[in-house]
Amino acid sequence: MSIKLRRILFYIFLAVFLITSPLIIAYAEGWRINYTTWNLEKTGGIFLEGYPSRAIIFINSEPIQHETGLFKKGLLIDDLAPGTYTIHIENAHGLAWKKVLDVYSSHVSRATKIVIPQKNAVSLTLKESIKDFIVKGDTIIGILNKNEIRAYNIQDLGKTSYIKIIGEKIIAVSPNGKNIVTQTKNGSYFLTNLLNSKSVLNITTLTETLKPQEKIKAINSHPYHNQEWILTFESGAYILQIKNSILVPVIKTPHSLLVNTTKNEAFFITPASTSPKNYNLISYNFLTNDLTLITSSTTSTPEKVIVAQNTLYILNSQNEFMAIELNNRKRIVIKERDVKDIILGREERKIALIKQKEIVIYYIEKEDQDYIVNEDESIHIPLTKTQENPTKVIWYNDDAHLVLQSHSGLFLLEIDPRPPRNIWTINENTEPIDYDPEKNKVYFIDNKNLYELDMGYESYRILLNS
């Protein structure tokens, strides 16, 4: 090969290198030509997390290869041109999660709280019918149709593995779930220790000696003491210390009503001294034993009180939702009416406002992980005919879903406002339910059977078939 030819080839390859190198580098960094606009744009991606390990994932109807395991819990689909993509995920039982996500240049769209529940369970017939129950840790406390109360250990269920408890009505349960206050048909209150079922205390008899001529109006559990209870009498409220058998005064105002307890506080409604039609909202601090006047009103009384981020959120008797900043007592105007209940999220960053035909999610803090909702803004979740007038609503443990029971069934509702909103029917029953966020398990009664639905492992088992 001549020197001249070699020089020509050298300059040709050099030119090709100089021309293609920037293109290769740009391609490697995610730059692509948008053939619709003929603009040069950088690609984006989609990150998915929380889906079942054996799920099948589709993007725009095309299957995506993915791996999951102990150290790989998410999937990044990168090198996507800006545009709209439909993500479809199916679990092993054929139930699906679907979401339409927008991908932008140099941006990764996220869906990190994906939940796909298990299919409905099949019911069996029980010899003993349970009409209501609550779950506390490893204990299920059930009320039979014949008004007998039994406590079952979830890990050791059987025909004889239960504790019979005096009473017909469950009044309160201690934080550890091992102490239960019940009420009998004649109105007497009893305290049962499940660790020692023979240890039963007649609270009514005890208080008759400590506070003669006054009857108990209400009993509530202490927020963190397992052997202390909040008792309300006509003359005020007291803490009953079981260990010392004494009543410690909390508030000595007659006709006081406990509306809620938080980690360290209890909130009471008391009649104002100026007029019996007025009321005061007062907080009691369990650590300092201090009473603090929060607010007074002449129009409506608080029905429920929530404390989060140093702000008091109130549902009043006119079904209005309002807020008061505790530092300066400033009222925050929130235009939400016809609210039946308010439920604080587990992370205390949002509140669910339960209405007849919708649920409003009010954001205490800005949401910016998967989608953006600013502080003090709300998103609305319309309810279908089968979900209207919910009888019970519980926050799911990821604070991104709600477990809802209505007169038509049991549902799991997704909060994510990006369409479509995923809603699943867990079970078509209208009987009592409960949810354990620590174990991520839903418990429900169906045709006299008590079921446990493991939301994390896509399996269920019949718990009680007595």
UniProtKB/TrEMBL annotation:
It comes from the Bacteria. Gene3D superfamilies: 2.80.10.50. This is PEGA domain-containing protein.
